[in-house]
Amino acid sequence: MEPKAVPAATATAVNEHDPHAWLEEVEGAAQLDWVRARNAEATDALGSERFEQLRAGVLEVLDSDARIPEVVKRGEYLYDFWRDAEHPRGVWRRTTPGSFATPEPEWEVLLDLDALSEQEDVNWVWKGAQLLPPRHERALVSLSRGGADATETREFDLATRAFVEGGFFHPESKGSVSWADTSGDLVLIAKEFGPDSMTTSGYPRTLRLWRRGTPVAEATELFAAEPTDMGVWAYHDFTEGFERTVIMRAAGFYEADFYLLQGLTPVRLEVPRSSEPVLHREWLFVELREAWEVGGATHAAGSLIAIELERFLAGERRFETLFTPTATTSLRQASATRNHLVLNVLDDVKSRLEVLTPTPQGWRRRPLELGALGAASEPLDVGVRPVDAEREDALWLRVEGFLTPTTLARLDLDAEGAATVAPLRSLPSFFDATGMTVTQRFATSDDGTRVPYFEIAPARAEAGPAPTLLYGYGGFEIPLLPAYSGVVGRAWLERGGVLVIANVRGGGEYGPRWHQAALREKRHRAYEDFAAVARDLLARGVTSRERLGVRGGSNGGLLVGNMLVRYPELFGAVVCQVPLLDMRRYSKLLAGASWMAEYGDPDDPADWEFVRTFSPYHLHESGRSYPPVMFTTSTRDDRVHPGHARKMAARMLAAGDDVTYYENIEGGHGGAATNEQAAFMQALAYEFLWQRLGG
Questions:
Q1: Out of 554, 587, 594, 615, which one is annotated catalytic?
Q2: Residues of the chain with pLDDT > 70: what percent?
């Protein structure tokens, strides 16, 4: 089936004056007055006793001390960033592995963002820290005003718990700053340095080597990308015996060149630009997005192949295949430990693990069994990440399902790859899942493709259409997997709502082929898939049109925006969050130019012919009947411009459509900078859905 045609009147309108273009000025006084007026209307319409119950219930989950810390090991400590009711902006803290293994770890607070925000009168949001090996006594800390992607970088002394006076500092900019060697006197910096230092996508164009005590303007340029590239990034591998600097020049979202820095000269790794190479100790792993004929063999798209790096640099091209996809399987992740490689394989969107071990005879593999931890009456997601890939054969293991609270365990591998699993802590049940069920089903899309989806249904005393929330993303090769959410459980499932997660094309559920099936001119496939799931729910009597709602954010906001304008007859309500909607202008707004490999170039007439078929802002027709819609965004979102949501809301309001709009003044692309803000935004969305869908 071809993309749906754009109405003739709409197709010509894209070249006329846009009466809502003024809303693209992010922080203008008139624009913020418009935002505040819409926010007041939303809170007046949605404020209720139920809203307060929803907000309080969500905040209790988000602030719960029973949440599992996301620790990372650096040297002798485990580090974590933590927000709760006492620390709404959060604290950077650390503990020892021994203490973390106890029910009540003893945490040492290194930096209190609430105190810093009050002291400096800035709403700081944590964006991470890079510690300096091997002693880990200094860190490069990244902070964001209000949650934007652009960050300020400061050097921090862990011994004194203070920022280093006269230390490394760079003002707010997109990009990265990282340690260049163990001396602590050199950093790799890819940031904004002035005119022509950023790409058209808004990311750094140059990489420099900056020496302590010298002006950043005098830093040595190591690499320069083209102005039309996406950007340049770099990191230093501190693994003892394998120290090296890796540079990535991203020409686009799915095209990059990787270089090893030899002296001050970058030397390119001769692998496909569409692939993802990873260096670990003596190994070069390459994950392929496209088939590659090399060394007398053809490796399929979606494969993982390996070779010793020194042999590769010497000209050898005979790779060993570690994973080849099938019709139902894809590689979700490959995680290296000191002596092993753990593959996380998706089989019809369900996880299984394999351990691969290099031997003189080749790579030996064995399944990784989780025993009782992997047993459940529903599909589980299993996630792993190395504890310390340089020194240990251990991984952090997370196991969860839609109804199964998350468990964190430590997984230790012996020399043969056999696993010992030690559970460390589990989430409590944040909602009563008694009688609830999880089922995986398949809908049939317009072109006959089987589209999987998960249906999470509450126990119900009576049959008939239920309030149902359909969620999707469908882009950038990102899969939607089973996940435990106390927020969704309390705000939706426990109150009698059905939740459906659609694994539409454009995502990564079946690897590159699933993603590429909805790229650019094939984008309509993702929307046809999502509509097919909606029709399947209606045909099976799970819900009715009046009780079926959809929700999505970012690229998922574009997805549900297309549901709003292309399939309005299927839905009773739409929640569209931090969305792309004006696809004529998206490539000129903030980071939009970096996504043209995903969507196409609207300034190219040939591309605009298909881009216009999924631009909700231009597909909207005055006088047509649309379901009630709620748009939310963030003023501080410097990734997806808030103008998308603003303009779409203004256009629909002018046409007399049922529109609710709320814009959080801070929060970045995540939409909220604190748990309190997140709870408020979640409660707004769910109250809107309950009002429109009933229940």
A1: 554
A2: 97
